[in-house]
């Protein structure tokens, strides 16, 4: 059973997805899947090419923006901005728990000038705590 968590009208996150989840994502109206896990992070989990193939079979776009132990960088934020700008419908992003996907979205939204309190509230409603990321969100929002 899928665990898709809505952060905005056009972006949801999930813990590691399965092939069945890709089918459910298509049925739920998603247009694209974004993988935020580096290949090999968990060898028993479906790897990027596996999910990419399942997405293609369902007619879903696929993008990989891996986030490893080094954390987040502006190129990753730029990549998500580009993916969202080119998406033809709602996006489902996933990682091991959904946390990295949530953090990446929050950072891009703060950098774009969205209200940081609203970003944190959306994440909390989906079960993700952004309190540790709050200083970075405020800094990105202040750079505008």
Automatic annotation (TrEMBL):
Pfam families: BLH_phosphatase. InterPro entries: BLH_phosphatase-like, Prot-tyrosine_phosphatase-like. GO terms for molecular function: hydrolase activity. Coiled coil: none annotated. Gene3D superfamilies: Protein tyrosine phosphatase superfamily (3.90.190.10). It comes from the Bacteria. Residues 3-111 form the Beta-lactamase hydrolase-like protein phosphatase-like domain. This is TIGR01244 family protein. It comes from Sphingopyxis bauzanensis. The lineage of its organism: Bacteria, Pseudomonadati, Pseudomonadota, Alphaproteobacteria, Sphingomonadales.
